[in-house]
Design a protein that fits this description.
Length: 113
């Protein structure tokens, strides 16, 4: 007696059996967060404060700038257009990111006026 041919599994179903399986959801993100090294905020020397003040006075709305600032235990570098400089609130806005003046470590202005 001849055996009947088995129903073949569709190709898309067959591919699913080889997909990676994450037994512990969120583990890669948790490990990446654990690897982050937190640093204390640096105190600026008088010379650094003077240079930062000079660079801040060169900034104008619409300029391209690179800013290094302190946030949540780490220093972040952002480059983008200056959207707003608010002297009263002491805030600098690069695109959608609002940065307190007190948290700024370094500013580089791309002067192409």
């Amino acid at each position: 007696m001849a055996s009947k041919p088995k129903n073949k599994m569709p190709i898309d179903e067959r591919a699913k059996q080889f997909m990676p399986f994450a037994a512990l959801r969120g583990l890669p993100d948790a490990l990446a967060a654990k690897e982050k090294i937190l640093v204390p905020k640096m105190e600026l020397s008088p010379e650094m404060e003077e240079e930062l003040d000079r660079q801040m006075h060169l900034l104008a709305k619409g300029d391209m700038a690179t800013v290094v600032y302190f946030q949540n235990g780490e220093y972040i570098k952002i480059t983008g257009l200056v959207a707003r400089i608010d002297e009263t609130s002491r805030l600098l806005q690069i695109v959608n990111t609002k940065i307190r003046f007190a948290d700024i470590l370094q500013v580089e202005v791309d002067i192409r006026r």
